[in-house]
């Protein structure tokens, strides 16, 4: 049986971590947001939250089941899933160019080319394997989303311009990736420039603990030019090798779970959310919740703007059907039925409002004083 952290668990329940910490504190257990909680404890807590809503038994099953699925995927249900890649680096070092070039060079012949849809992520196929690229500014992917318990990225590509070298945001990106425990591949970009000095990039990054494989370390450096589309294949191969080592797996059979990457209000179709599905399979007609919003999936679009019926593991998609615009970083869950979904978001909204007003006052110290 696996364990999850209190923070993750709170997120899954849709209640602030502070509330769970307080609840446990009052029971004499001092836990923090990072403490692992046992399945039994989690189950005990879930029951308490379910008791808040009317149809006790059903909701209890809802949360209990959701959580059970979270920790106990049967080995035989797990399948390989595509890696999710985030590109990070200093401004102007070529993040956007690299994303665009990789996408453009992977347009399957016969497709009418051109990027029809601006979605927060896209998927390509290399050597018959899918790779998902998430187009969120590196920081958001690692800070905002992580703060909400949603780890999106499997592998970080650190772009460093060979004519500029390691810059402040390079170091910042590096520290985010390290904190998240995500493997880093360095893309030394702009090698087409006469003044490019890839060696200098390697030396500078070594000072930050990233030692290239050639030099006896374990970080892959790939020299590329996003502009001239040089060595992009090498970069993709390196991503696939890294992904293979990670043995990324998930269960496609259960109800879908994912994360909202971006969202907006479309004047024609209403709230639109770009999501990345991390577990299960999302289908038209599924009832969904994300933070304080809920709805029923009315339409699904892939990264090319085509209508699709199902969204699989690590696949990005645009969802139409939310009643309001969900927040980027919110976790999206498929829920049994609309009634339940409505109750869950009501609770989440209530809890978030509460958390808003008490965020600053609830710390472990203030709690212990308060309840002494
Ligand atoms: P971002 O801020 O990291 O997203 O960087 P951009 O992708 O917007 O690129 C910044 C500038 O660098 C643009 O003018 C690009 O055309 C240029 N650029 C990006 N990649 C390369 C490259 O491989 N070679 C050259 N010569 N210029 C590049
Ligand atoms: Mg950019």
From TrEMBL:
This is Translation initiation factor IF-2. Residues 80-247 form the Tr-type G domain. One of its GO terms (cellular component) is cytosol. Transmembrane segments: none annotated. It is found in: Cytoplasm. GTP binds at residues 89-96, 135-139, 189-192. It comes from the Bacteria. One of its GO terms (molecular function) is RNA binding. It comes from Fusobacterium hominis. Keywords: Cytoplasm, GTP-binding, Initiation factor, Nucleotide-binding, Protein biosynthesis, RNA-binding. The keyword Nucleotide-binding applies. The chain holds residues 149 to 520 of 728 of the full protein.
